[in-house]
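ok so I'm stuck.
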Amino acid sequence: MFFIASGFVGPFLGRILLFEGIDRVGASIACTVFEAKPIFSVLIAMLILSERLTLPILSGVVLMMLGTVIISRERSGGDIVKRWSGKDLIVPVSAGICYGGSHVLRKMGINLIPEPFVAVMWQNAGALIFSPFLVVAYRRNQQLIWHSKMAWVIFGLSGIIQVAAQWCLFAALDRGAVVLVSPLTSLSTLFVLILAVFILKEVERVTWKIVTGAVLIIAATVVLTVLG
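replied:
not stuck anymore, here's the structure
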């Protein structure tokens, strides 16, 4: 049940919110703000799993919050095609909250069944259970969805990568605490920015505020991992 619940909160609801955030503010900003999810993982893990909050962990959380604030002040970067407001950042932040809570649910499940493969299977089954609701929600765009063949290929490849990432995450949670494992996942921000510069340069602009915020979030990851 923990794995199924994490499938709904994380890969299902959290992924929808992340894609919506990318559509609103661009991948570089949405994914960087989303990677502040360890803040919520740490807080929830402290409340539910009674994991200990140390000074390095608190410092890492503060750095992540500071990085998120700096990015929230950005207005010229992100999606070049359309303008966005600060309120749009609520969407990727909500995605981070979902995934932060999902990490705790995954840890609770892996404590009972320490098998990453089983965890990935049931988590994705939990996400799949709720997928028919998407068909209803996006019924107006059915023709566009079914005729975007290249999009199916791209999303299919990203899905394969996500499954591999989930297995790695469960294996890590089986070996360590949420307050240490969850921050490490924020390193994906670095790869998002690098890929955005080279692949999305026609539609996104990576500014110094975005880079500064990402550096702070990555620094927080280092603090949490090395000193936490």
